[in-house]
Amino acid sequence: MRSYREADIVASVRDGLQFIACTHPADFIRHLAAAYAAEAPGAAKDAMGQLLLNARMSALDKRPMCQDTGTVNVFVKLGIGARIESTRSLQEIVDDGVRQAYRDADNPLRASIVSDPLFLRPNTRDNTPSILNVEIVAGDGLDVTLAAKGGGSENKARFAVLNPADDVARWVVDTVATLGAGWCPPGVLGIGVGGTSEKAMLLAKKALMDPLDMSELRRRGPRDKTEAMRLDICDRVNALGIGAQGLGGATTVLDVKIRTFPTHAASMPVALIPNCAATRHIHLSLDGSGPARIEMPDLADWPAGIAAAARGAMRQVSLDALSKADVARWRPGERLLLSGKLLTGRDAAHRRMAEMMARGEPLPVSLENRVIYYVGPVDPVRGEAVGPAGPTTANRMDRYSEMRLGRAGLLGMVGKAERDEATRAAIAQHGAVYLIAVGGAGYLISKAIKSARVLAFADLGMEAIHEFEVEDMPVIVAIDARGASIHDSGPRAFREKRVASAGG
Is 410 exposed, middle or buried (0-12, 13-18, 19+ CB in 10 A)? Predict the structure, then answer.
């Protein structure tokens, strides 16, 4: 019987989570670099360039690649002959490791977990509890797979019980076409088929931890029906032209992973879970002699200097002198560099401002002719103005758009992914603009933030209203003052060009 010390498990979880917050799996970087090389020049290629540059900076500086450092998913395979030297539950032991990782003074990770999902939704402040899955297996080993799953991609998980004769690949492609860009493509699709409803979802989540091999699969060709289905789904999803960040391009998914399990003869449960461009997971094996060893990968696979070439094509914008006349000249897909004073605020702050306006109370901060960034940053360290500070999914704020643009006079918004029709109409009506920053490039974006101060709602923590002083912060025009959206025109232009090329 092999024994495992509680402290070694805690340390392995802590160190593993710190590692994956800052370092992509090497196979993901290789696939993303290949997709970047193959992408035509434009906004989508620039977005992938930012992701690659951000990945290298994060790995070298050991800072989170994305401000959303995720829900912790833990998959444990515990040998039936193993013994854990502890009087506590495995959940408590694992959560100690999570707590230490997220409260690390040298590299704090953003705590995003709320204890009450229905009503008050208070933050637990340490990102616990984790989502723990335990499998008892033969032998006396202890294997731990850690994943930190961002909210934007997790929110796009989908499930259906299909008829046994239905086309799974068609359901997947049709479903991805409805997801929008909130899951921060390019990424990976995890698909689980079979079992029961909960088993299919678990299969899909586990599939996301499998090594990426789509480039190898293309070279050698499929060896079985499952590999043929993976290749077919990957090609058909990429043919949708959604592209990086929904901007329109050749690569929406880098790989498609499928896991299956026997199921009832009358059923075909199918689960789909996408992984975002901030893909974070690691497999650890303990041998009883101490914490699991984690080796830093060779950063030769992390390309350097990619994004710098795009600077010349970007328009310099002063936020402190911005007017509706300036905004009216911008067009979807145009790349900007923002400098000046930028407000921040996301879900909780918007809700509180809406309640104040409904009561007829003045807002603590004037929004007149200002631009607001939907962000919840990581705490700063070592002289940083702010920690990683990438955008959150903007459509959660759609319900407040008319109130902000009309009554409060807001001029612009910065987030990620598409907006609903009512928001687009409000943007056009008020001559405003919606910009996107690259989701998953939070550390790169933070380097453009030179100072930060809280203006209101300090009790909301990372959701408080801040004022950032930014210098050359890269963004892309997503919806212009006429209501035209890059999330419509970008994928459409890609598909039309693809059809024209095939016809030629």
Answer: buried
